[in-house]
Amino acid sequence: MHSIFKQLADDHINISYVMIVLAKHASQWQNIDDIRSDLDFIQDSLHYLSDYPQLCHHPIEEQLFDYIEEKKLCDPTMFSELRAEHKELETITNNIKEQFQAFSDDQKMGGFEELKQSTVSFIRSQQEHVKNEDTLILPEIDRAMSEEHWREFTTNLNFETDPVFGGIQCEKISQLLRSIIKRK
Ligand SMILES: [Fe+2]
Ligand SMILES: [Fe+2]
Questions:
Q1: Which of 16, 46, 88, 105 gives the lowest tally of CB atoms within 10 Å of its CB?
Q2: Residue 175's pLDDT band (boundaries 50, 70, 90)?
Q3: Are the C-beta atoms of 73 and 53 separated by less than 8 Å?
Q4: Spacing, Cα 130 to ligand 2 middle (Å)
Q5: CA of 103 to the centre of ligand 2 (A)
Q6: Domains of the chain from N-terminus onward
Q7: What value does the mean pLDDT of the chain take?
Q8: Distance (Å) from CA 125 to ligand 2 centroid
Q9: CA of 8 to the centre of ligand 1 (A)
Q10: Quick check: helix, strand or coil at residue 92?
């Protein structure tokens, strides 16, 4: 298994793990005070779930989709839905981050039910996307990409955003993951 493929699969495990932990926290919120006292954890989780995919994970996936399409290694229509989902997920994630930021700044933007509902539907959207990729897309990519393809893809990869080769920003966000796991 190529290291980039493994990194994408591992990213899904980490992202899913943070979502499970966040879902567990959300299931225990009974009122607005529960949310207030959980705010540090919620905001760190949302920070990870927005920045890691947007800065480190989606850019690699999308460069890989481009490469596979260019080489005609898979059905060319299979990635268009995922690209749209990336955009949609980024909007949903940015919105929920703003909602909790406004709450933290005491500007309200929704009461208890709204914050809890936004969290639950945000988690559902993220989980559906990861499940879709894990069950349908990653196996296709694994099947389509030969060692030679991976070599060529890696040579042309934009290293700035590549967690495998140590993008500094990605490393910082991975530290945040470790701190979230400690506070689960
Ligand atoms: Fe994705
Ligand atoms: Fe993904």
A1: 105
A2: confident
A3: no
A4: 6
A5: 29
A6: 3-182 (1.20.120.520)
A7: 89
A8: 13
A9: 9
A10: helix
Q: Which ligand approaches the C-alpha of residue 14 most closely?
A: 2
Residues near ion ligand 2 (CB < 5 Å) are: 133
Ligand nearest the Cα of residue 138 is 2
pLDDT of residue 164 exceeding 80: no
User: How many A from CA of 105 to the centre of ligand 1?
Assistant: 31
Which tokens in the block code for residue 8?
Answer: 């994408």
Structure-token match 């990635």, residue found: 79
Q: How far is the CA of 82 from the centre of ligand 1 (A)?
A: 6
- Please state the φ and ψ torsions of residue 176, each to the nearest 5 degrees: -60, -40
- Tens of pLDDT, residue by residue over 107-158, are 766 789 999 999 999 999 999 999 999 998 999 999 999 999 999 999 888 7
First and final CA of the chain: distance in angstroms? 30
Count Cβ atoms below 10 Å from residue 7 Cβ, excluding itself: 18
